[in-house]
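User: Hi! I'm working on a homework problem where we have to compare a predicted structure to a textbook description. Could you give me the structure for the chain below?
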Amino acid sequence: MAFAVSEISSWDGSSLRPAGPEQSAFHRLWLGFMAARVGIAIVMLVLLGGLMLSGLTPIDMWQLTLCGSYLAAVLAVRVFSRPTLPGRTFDPQWVSTIGIDLLAFSTLHLLQPAGLNFSPLYALPVLTAAVLGSTLLALGTAAAVTLLLLIDAWVLVLEAPDYAPRLVQAGLTGGGYFVVALFGNQMAARLAREEMAARRSRSAARTQAQVNEVVIETLTEGVLVVASDWRIHAANPAARSLLGWQAKEAPASLALVSRPGWKPLAALAQRTFTEHASQNAELALDLAPGERLHVRVRTRLTPPPDAQADALCVMFLQDLREAEARLRTEKLAAMGRMSAAVAHEIRNPLAAIAQANGLLAEELDDPAHQQLTTLVRKNALRLSQIVEDILNLARLQQPPSDWLELDQTARMLVGEWQRHTQCGARLQLGLGSAGAWTAFDGEHLRRVLVNLLDNALRYASRRPGAIVVATDATEGTGEQARLRVWSDSQPLDPGVQRHLFEPFFSSESRSSGLGLYICRELCDRHGAAIGYARALAPDGSGREGNEFTVSFRTRAAVLPGSHPFDTIGA
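Assistant: Happy to help. Predicted structure tokens:
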């Protein structure tokens, strides 16, 4: 039977190779007994051959032939047979093997060439049957050997009555073989049970180790295992990514003190070993010039496996930016659900306020009172728009599947916005997408473009060309088109850039903070992408400003005749 042996690679660079059945104790015992049989055959052949050559005692050639045949038989068994676990009945393989031993040893014992006593050799088949066979085979072999010894003694008693004590000796020897057979078989069975239990424990440990490997490999939290001499015993992929660790470097090739940026980690590990207690800290690691990583680190000491081994320090690394982002996401999700519920409840009272304000305005003639009603109407409209934005986010409707010619749509939407805001020459339009068709709903694209233009108008200067709207397409294939909204406004603060597209985030107190978030959601639903960068003006003037870019998939990227959203995730 062939067995496949696989190798398991661990996250610390080592490998776990499971032991195959050829390495079992049963297999080693089988090899030992086969080697003993070969050794006994060689010794008998050499002994009888030496006696024959010396001429001290008469040795027949057939006796040497018997020893040579026995040697050939045991060699054939060793080479061509394989060990099989003992069963509850006789195994033909073991019977034939033990039968060869009994036949050869009985022939030599009964004839006793050169007056040699071969009865001790019976211990080999008895032990072989006891250790490698079943209980029935062991007792049967002991019974067969006892019968042979008794028959030999009985024949001697018939020839000479003085040999009567040989019967008692044969009986005692046979009884001893029974004890050896039973005791050896029980010891072998116990060994087999212990080995089976050890194999089950090893298999369970290996399975647990594989599960641990998968868990550690997929952890988003970095894991470092450090010794008291600063050597890194293991590091999972998350830790390597956080620390900028090259994959070609083995864990044992580096120490925490080998890189200057890791010294805060080394100090925390030293404190853990010194105080023999877990530590928690927030550290700043200078991994490269101008690159600082803020991490939250927790350390734990492992108990030493024995008195000679040292404890290890396990360090858990967590990027503070990711932790804060997850916390914000959870908070925003809860706030979003609450906001949708509140917005739904506000809409009806708000409509009643607006209607009552309209009726009141018709009855008032005092300009001061008219001014107050106008103020109420404007703020009611603003609140109504905020409520509508929140409810639109909560609905998550499937976008319509419209094909839009980007240049034509951009010209129409920008023209409407320009007339509405009366910005005049402050806005420039440059179209260059070469007739690219994009899969986007027209009303949704209007909301995206108007939102970006409103933001640009709010922060841009009043100079001509302060706002530039441009389109372009990928050269050659035309599979991607871009809509760019550029303004000459001041650079955004890095803290603002990180949260630009998050809901309810705004640098102005009067803004809901939903504009850019709605733009991103609409783009995601249509398979487009929106981003921000500090860039040069699209008109080639070399001016630097803030630019928002929307990247679309075009008809050229979709198979002919297919639905526009077959390849674009909604």
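For your comparison, note the following. The first helix runs from residue 25 to 54. Residues 1-11, 15-22, 559-570 have pLDDT under 50 and may be disordered. Good luck with the assignment!
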